[in-house]
């Protein structure tokens, strides 16, 4: 049995004891206040039973017919509890008014009736504190509803105790007045409880949580831009559906990474949230011309890679050039047909581009490594010297590897974190050019830059 259900079960037994004590003392003494408190506790018994069974239903995992789980069972329980409380309080109020108007209803105040009221007050205090702590710990609406009723019980019992003391002193009207006070307390608590749970059942947006989630996604710009967000809650858990857009030229991996970033940001802002992210390409009017050209070219299937997208203002309109990579064994006629399709796609999707020029390249396969190049061992110092002269700092790593086309230097270059990507690319290119030109025995260099 879960901790939440154990707390609810304790509340059931406590409510049974209180109903018995209040009802027996009320009937014996003729106190409408104690009888009204017995009825109030009876509604709490119903509430505790509803909470006990609702928590069992809410704990069930999501299934095919309840994809969001069964958390709303708690809110249905709390709403049903509120209805019972309203009916009971109206009955109590009607009888209290009748006694006040008619002046009937003699109360026999005894020491044991006062003792029962004091004992009940102590029990109400203990279970109110216990239920409030459990509701905060487990974020349970059902337990929170029970805590509200226990607190109203405590206030009502205190009023009844005062009414009994006054009735014993000769003020007979004090007892029905205390009963009327109890009914007002119950109506107020029931109203708040029903309003809160109706909001949840009607999928009212939880304002504070939604604001936190929206702020978290907004901070991810310009990586992503939020188009729409929907949020609902049940049993203390939030469900978030969000639609974001990325650059239309973004690859599948980039879009997936953007969705992960959105999900993690929302989960940090709203702990425990169930987040679903849908990614769409950004509207054409919101992106740069180069990205639109790349996105149009990527619509054509079988093109493995597109790079070196360039735009030229030719004095009568914009012209675009781009490099396409296809499998090396693709027949030239087929490759030309694919390139022509890419050119048409760009012209159709990007009317600002007057002409499109494509350059077709074979997609090279992976290099087969033969092992470390012992003969070029002395070249490592020369590579380090070049890296130091270009970057102003020692290379973090230099490795020489023998491949099918000669010795290749793999260099990790340390640059300042404040440098732009363009500057880092230029430094890496300069290292590569100088290594190929100045270091004997090294056919090529691959340079990785880090801050």
Notes on the structure:
This protein is α/β, with parallel strands linked by helices and 451 residues long. The chain folds into four domains: 3-201, Cation efflux protein transmembrane domain (Alpha-lytic protease prodomain-like), CATH 1.20.1510; 207-285, Cation efflux protein, cytoplasmic domain (Alpha-Beta Plaits); 288-363, Alpha-Beta Plaits (2-Layer Sandwich); 371-450, Cation efflux protein, cytoplasmic domain (Alpha-Beta Plaits, 2-Layer Sandwich). 57% of the residues lie in helices and 19% in strands.
Summarize the structure.
This protein has 451 residues and is an alpha/beta fold.
- Number of helices, where a helix is a run of at least 4 consecutive DSSP H or I residues: 12
Mean pLDDT: 78
How is the biggest beta sheet arranged?
4 strands, mixed
Which fold does the CATH topology of the largest domain refer to? Alpha-lytic protease prodomain-like
The low-confidence parts are 367-375
CATH class bucket of the largest domain: Mainly Alpha
Structural class: alpha/beta
Strand-residue fraction?
15-25%
**What general form does the structure show?**
elongated
Q: Helicity, in percent?
A: 55-70%
Q: How many distinct folded domains?
A: 4
Please report the total strand number as a whole number.
Answer: 10
List the strand order in the largest sheet. Answer: 7-8-9-10
Quickly give the CATH architecture of the largest domain. Answer: Up-down Bundle
* Cα end-to-end separation: 54 Å
The value of Rg in angstroms is: 38 Å
């Amino acid at each position: 049995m879960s901790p939440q259900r154990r707390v609810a079960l304790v509340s059931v037994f406590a409510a049974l004891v209180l109903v018995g004590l209040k009802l027996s003392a009320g009937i014996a003494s003729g106190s409408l206040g104690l009888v009204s408190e017995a009825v109030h506790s009876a509604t709490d018994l119903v509430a505790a039973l509803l909470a006990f069974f609702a928590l069992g239903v809410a704990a069930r995992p999501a299934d095919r017919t309840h994809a969001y789980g069964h958390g709303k069972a708690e809110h249905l329980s709390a709403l049903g509890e509120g209805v019972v409380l309203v009916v009971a309080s109206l009955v109590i109020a009607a009888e209290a008014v009748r006694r006040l108007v008619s002046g009937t209803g003699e109360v026999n105040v005894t020491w044991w009736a006062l003792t029962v009221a004091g004992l009940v007050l102590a029990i109400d205090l203990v279970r109110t504190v216990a239920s409030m702590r459990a509701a905060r710990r487990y974020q349970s609406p059902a337990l929170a509803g029970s805590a509200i009723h226990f607190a109203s019980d405590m206030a009502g019992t205190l009023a009844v105790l005062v009414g009994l003391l006054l009735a014993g002193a000769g003020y007979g009207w004090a007892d029905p007045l205390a009963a009327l006070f109890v009914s007002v307390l119950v109506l107020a608590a029931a109203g708040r409880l029903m309003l809160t749970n109706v909001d949840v059942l009607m999928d009212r947006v939880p304002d504070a949580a939604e604001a936190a989630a929206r702020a978290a996604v907004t901070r991810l710009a310009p990586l992503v831009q939020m188009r729409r967000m929907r949020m609902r809650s049940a049993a203390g858990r939030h469900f978030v559906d969000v639609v974001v857009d990325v650059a239309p030229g973004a690859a599948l991996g980039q879009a997936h990474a953007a969705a992960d970033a959105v999900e993690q940001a929302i989960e940090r802002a709203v702990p425990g949230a169930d987040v679903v992210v849908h990614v769409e390409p950004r509207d054409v009017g919101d992106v740069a011309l180069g990205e639109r050209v790349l996105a149009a070219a990527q619509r054509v299937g079988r093109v493995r890679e597109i790079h070196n997208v360039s735009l030229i203002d030719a004095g009568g309109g914009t012209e675009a050039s781009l490099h396409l990579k296809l499998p090396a064994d693709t027949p030239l006629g087929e490759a030309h047909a694919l390139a022509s399709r890419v050119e048409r796609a760009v012209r159709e999707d990007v009317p600002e581009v007057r002409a499109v020029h494509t350059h077709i390249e074979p997609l090279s396969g992976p290099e087969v490594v033969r092992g470390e190049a012992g003969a070029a061992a002395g070249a490592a110092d020369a590579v380090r010297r070049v890296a130091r002269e270009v970057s102003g700092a020692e290379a973090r790593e230099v490795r020489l590897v023998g491949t099918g086309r000669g010795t290749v230097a793999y260099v990790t270059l340390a640059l300042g974190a404040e440098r732009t990507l363009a500057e880092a690319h230029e430094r890496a290119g300069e290292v590569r050019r100088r290594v190929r030109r100045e270091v004997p025995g090294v056919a090529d260099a691959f340079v990785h830059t880090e801050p």
